[in-house]
Q: What sequence folds into this?
């Protein structure tokens, strides 16, 4: 199964600090793990702003994900247009594009953000 990880899951995965319930998805060799180019962009912006929860080098994260076998999911026009149809449940534009990618590509999104559950049934919520 393909699984798209949200930005915090990617950061935690790279740091070896994943919630226990997420580990089973990451370690399952039958899963194809994906990251969005939006997540790298989010890390670059928020790390540059000095956000403590984004204290990671975006270049190192990107390279580390590729070396670990993650596949990059680029943002395409279809994803950005789908954002227009999403209800305003979440204001973070990065989370909104991740949801749009998940819905458009029919790939579950692995997240610890409970607010994303209300968007689509393909969200895998890890508390």
A:
């Amino acid at each position: 199964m393909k699984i798209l990880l949200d930005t915090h899951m990617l950061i935690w995965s790279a740091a070896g600090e994943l919630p226990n319930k997420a580990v089973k998805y990451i370690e399952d060799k039958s899963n194809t793990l994906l990251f969005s180019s939006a997540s790298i962009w989010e890390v670059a912006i928020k790390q540059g702003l000095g956000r403590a929860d984004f204290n990671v080098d975006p270049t190192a994260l990107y390279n580390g994900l590729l070396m670990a076998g993650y596949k990059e999911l680029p943002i395409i026009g279809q994803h950005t247009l789908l954002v227009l149809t999403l209800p305003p449940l979440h204001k973070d534009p990065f989370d909104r594009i991740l949801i749009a990618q998940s819905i458009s590509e029919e790939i579950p999104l692995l997240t610890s953000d409970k607010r994303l559950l209300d968007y689509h049934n393909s969200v895998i919520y890890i508390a």
Remarks:
- The first helix runs from residue 7 to 15.
- The chain has one domain: 2-125.
